[in-house]
């Protein structure tokens, strides 16, 4: 894999209950809404579950995701292709935490920060 090893760990406050955050991270329809402009492979099931594999695209860069853990307050994705690493999400009432590590040419910290801001805006619009 070409690129540099990068790691980023961000926790933000959100005005949303745990269940709203859960639904926004584990239900594919909602996930696709707030992660726009990222494109998702077709045929995703309604809810993410362990062993599910899907692909997203950031422009021409494909990123394969394999769901390793999907629980009421935790999601762990193993990443390959455009990012070689993992992405963990933890959440509770009023907060979301994201940890991303991998080798990539993409600026992972910037992408992670923008994603968390989009999630916060999406959750605010759902109230």
Automatic annotation (TrEMBL):
It comes from the Bacteria. This is Uncharacterized protein. It comes from Allocoleopsis franciscana PCC 7113.
């Amino acid at each position: 894999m070409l690129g540099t090893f990068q790691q980023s760990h961000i926790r933000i406050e959100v005005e949303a209950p745990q269940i709203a955050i859960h639904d926004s991270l584990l239900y594919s329809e909602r996930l696709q809404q707030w992660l726009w402009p990222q494109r998702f492979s077709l045929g995703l099931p309604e809810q993410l579950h362990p062993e599910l594999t899907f692909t997203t695209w950031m422009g021409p860069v494909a990123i394969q995701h394999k769901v390793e853990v999907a629980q009421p307050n935790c999601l762990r994705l193993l990443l390959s292709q455009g990012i070689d690493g993992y992405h963990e999400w933890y959440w509770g009432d009023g907060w979301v935490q994201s940890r991303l590590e991998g080798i990539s040419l993409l600026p992972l910290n910037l992408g992670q920060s923008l994603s968390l801001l989009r999630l916060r805006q999406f959750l605010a619009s759902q109230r």
